[in-house]
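In this supplementary section we document a worked example of the pipeline. Step one takes a protein sequence of length 168 as its only input; no multiple sequence alignment statistics are reported here. Step two produces a three-dimensional model, which step three serialises into structure tokens for compact storage. The input and output of this example are shown verbatim.
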Amino acid sequence: MESDTQSYMANIGINRILVHILNKWQPLIQTKRFRYWEDIRKTRLVRRHGYKDEYFPNGMLPRINDGKRIKELPIYRPKDSWSVKKASFGQNDYIDILGNGKLHPARIAYNVPSWLKTFRGNEYTMLLRKTKMLDRGIFPLIHPTKWSKMKSRIDWLWYHLNYRRKIY
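The serialised model returned by step three reads:
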């Protein structure tokens, strides 16, 4: 009988210890690696105010109406293949061969500056020609920065061509 009472007392002691442990027990807190958007909004202070996230946290992507028009293809307009510009393209290419020989192809180049017509040479001679044409006019007064940069480029090219080239 003594063994029964001892085992009973031992069980009471173990139960008291377990109750004591269970009353003080707290669950182990595990940190989440990925926090959800609602948790962040509830628990954190508002930081980086004005920052806009690039991702949409609420599931499938909706079509958000932010005032911008939905991108769409431009309206199809067929191209006019017989416009004046396209029809007359290259009409004077062989005028020196097919013509009577009185008209030089350089005289047909209407969109080319006068100092570049019939020009053959390097950058230095082209800039010299350009300065000779433009220094008589108002160009140096209207565009002083362009003029000084062009002059400094001429000086650099002169030095490079005269002193820094390989002599064969």
